[in-house]
């Protein structure tokens, strides 16, 4: 039983190590984390509803998850194909495309949620 909890503890430790490594090494990841902080602050400032918090949390999670997968795919591609290879390029472009789709989705959700609050604030 002891070793069961130790294994679970280590799994969490390795997962946090992965998140930490992505935040430290990826400039885009830093940008995503900063944007997420901005969104959280804006959420408190405009006192958004519970449903809106859920949508914002989902959007933040989606983008950060996509960026971590992108980093993992880039790292593996560099390991498997350090030399130029069209398939390696295509793999990286697909992973980057997934991040872009996630980021555009999050931006649309952010606009739909915050725009009415900003307009109401400017009109008040
Ligand atoms: N081994 C390779 N073979 C062919 N094309 C590659 C290879 N490595 C990278 N490329 C091409 O160059 C682009 C940029 O590669 P890079 O390794 O800088 O990835 P990146 O997605 O820009 O990384 P980062 O997000 O860290 O800036 C890729 O999207 C891909 O089109």
TrEMBL record:
Its main location: membrane. Signal peptide: none annotated. InterPro entries: DAGK, DAGK_sf, UDPK. It is found in: Cell membrane. The keyword Amino-acid biosynthesis does not apply. The chain crosses the membrane at residues 31-49, 55-73, 94-119. Keywords: ATP-binding, Cell membrane, Kinase, Lipid biosynthesis, Lipid metabolism, Membrane, Nucleotide-binding, Phospholipid biosynthesis, Phospholipid metabolism, Transferase, Transmembrane, Transmembrane helix. GO terms for molecular function: kinase activity. It is a multi-pass membrane protein. The keyword Nucleus does not apply. Coiled coil: none annotated. Its EC number is 2.7.1.-. Belongs to the bacterial diacylglycerol kinase family. This is Diacylglycerol kinase family protein. The lineage of its organism: Bacteria, Pseudomonadati, Bacteroidota, Cytophagia, Cytophagales.
